[in-house]
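_Backbone structure tokens_
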Amino acid sequence: MIRMKTWVYQIQRQVDKLGEESASWYVGWLDPDGKRCSKSFGPGKVGQRAAEKFKLKTHIELIEGRYQSPKKKSWAEFRKEFETKIADGMLAQTRRLVLDGLENFERLIKPQIVASIKTQTIDAYRAKRRTERGKKRGELISPASVNKELRTLKAILRKAHKWGYLPSVPDFQFEREPQRLPTFVTPEHFAKIYEACKIAKLPTGREGWASDWWRGLLVMAYMTGWRISELLALLREDVDLEAGTALTRAEHNKGRRDARVNLHPVVIEHLRRLAGFDSKVFPWNGNRRFLYDEFAKIQETAGVKLPCAGSHKHTKFCYVYGFHDLRRSFATMNADRLTGDALQTLMRHKAYATTQRYINMTRQTDEAVAKLHVPEVLKKGLA
């Protein structure tokens, strides 16, 4: 005799005053250990259809050996499985951000069972996390940083739900972020920074190497939109100066896909000056912090001093550009020169909406102002 694994039932059929069923429909099943389990799906035809659907899904999982009891999976077991199956395949920087987010969640919430994580759990985490100190002394963690961790946590819990460890993904409410204008290196500042590269001392090499290294790096960043991690990982064998192309490899870029990019003659000219025996075009063998220190020194020499609205103890890095500002410059300066599709291809955005933000930032304000109504009495002054 075949033992039934799943079934649909009502405890007792009940009808309300309007003649509609008010008793809930249930699905019962036996888990692999023989324990009887059940789940309610509400009354009426809607509840019955949902119950039948869940019954079929559970029945198939039990037969194929894929069934997982949500109440049995501990957080520690889930995290170990997530790291092995998912996190270990991520880029190093992405993996670090994911694991840092998990560490913060565990430190503040101390989760035990995956299935016990609810919307209240996420709200409690958000409330505790936003009161902690940020990277800069005297400043709380930024709303953007909290939201980044929340988005990461949401993606992780989606995976827990798909694996059958979490009944449903909790609702996530995000922090309200101040809408500041993104910074990008202006052409005027770029010219001054380019000139100031002559004072660079690192990286060491032949005479004039540091100056050529920085000018090559900055020109390629400004005229390709590549991220700093992609530039530092660029291999000489992936650059063809005669064909004028460079290859960014899947393991080195955020999009996780190879992309061959045509280089502008100005970029090629600067890369020709970087001949050497190192396997990388832009070798940097020292501590990465020295890279940012050197970039800050070059900008200070160039006279760059940006305003900083943060309410924290300021450092020299508050007043200078970051490497990602060069990528924003590429998008901003070319939004009106290229089609949206071309800009998306060069920046390698997965979603066109991301590229569209740069285009909107550049175009819409100018177009809107140009179309504003001007009273007749004021037009005389414009003539």
User: Anything to note?
Assistant: The longest helix spans residues 44-64.
